[in-house]
Amino acid sequence: MPVTKAETRQSLLNAARRIVAAKGYAAVGINEILAAAGVPKGSFYHHFGSKDAFGEAMMKSYFDEYLTTMDGIVADKGKSSAQHLMRYWQNFYDMQVVDDCQGGCLVVKLGAEIADLSEVMRVATKVGTTEIVDRLERMITDGIADGSVSVDDSPRTTAEALYDLWLGASMMAKIHRSPDYLDRAMTVTRQVLHV
């Protein structure tokens, strides 16, 4: 059965995510991505207008998958909102401790790099991280409503502060190759949410 254009496009995005997560965006060439995806040279521009457009699509694909995972956590109706929140943070933790704390979060890996390099990637990342914080805010609000969570600040401010905490802890875990920073983030998260 022939491979569709959409499947080829997704194959390129998946290959790029793996490579870029390890090397960064600027260090990866289009030919390396094509080879990893098993896509012939010259076909890249059939799928993407430029490397920037490709980077934007890669970030959007990453956030689509990430947000789907978050939505799946919340969809578990047998759990309280506090349990949803802590499952989310445990997933975040688990993603960041892989490969000697080198992690798989493209926001941690690429945030500063793409903010300076590519406006379209920066905007895609801003939109994606805002959607993450939106979902965290809803989870906190739901937790306040069901009595499983209490916070000392607004749900929005708490969601932003916790997400910022985890991004910083992930960066420090990468630098030190130690989960200690993520362990502290988990402890602080429990304290902030009173769970």
Blueprint of the fold:
Elements: H1 5-23, H2 30-37, H3 44-47, H4 51-74, H5 81-101, H6 106-117, H7 119-146, H8 155-176, H9 180-193
Helix pairs in contact: 1-2, 1-4, 4-7, 5-7, 5-8, 5-9, 6-7, 7-8, 8-9
Pfam family, one: TetR_N
Protein name: TetR/AcrR family transcriptional regulator
GO molecular function, one term: DNA binding
Specify the CATH class: Mainly Alpha
Task: Kindly name the structural category.
Answer: mainly alpha
The profile of the biggest β sheet is: none
Q: Topology as H/E string? A: HHHHHHHHH
> What percentage of residues falls in helices of 4 or more residues?
over 70%
CATH 2nd-level architecture: Orthogonal Bundle
Strand content: under 5%
Number of helices: 9
What oligomeric state do the depicted chains represent? Answer: single chain
Protein name: TetR/AcrR family transcriptional regulator
Keywords: DNA-binding, Transcription, Transcription regulation
Pfam families: TetR_C_13, TetR_N
GO molecular function: DNA binding
Q: How would you characterize this protein structure?
A:
The protein is elongated, with a radius of gyration of 18 Å. With 195 residues, the chain is mostly helical. It has helices at 5-23, 30-37, 44-47, 51-74, 81-101, 106-117, 119-146, 155-176, 180-193. The longest helix is centred in the C-terminal third of the chain and has 28 residues, at 119-146. The protein has one domain (51-193): Tetracycline Repressor, domain 2.
Summarize, please.
The protein has nine helices and no strands.
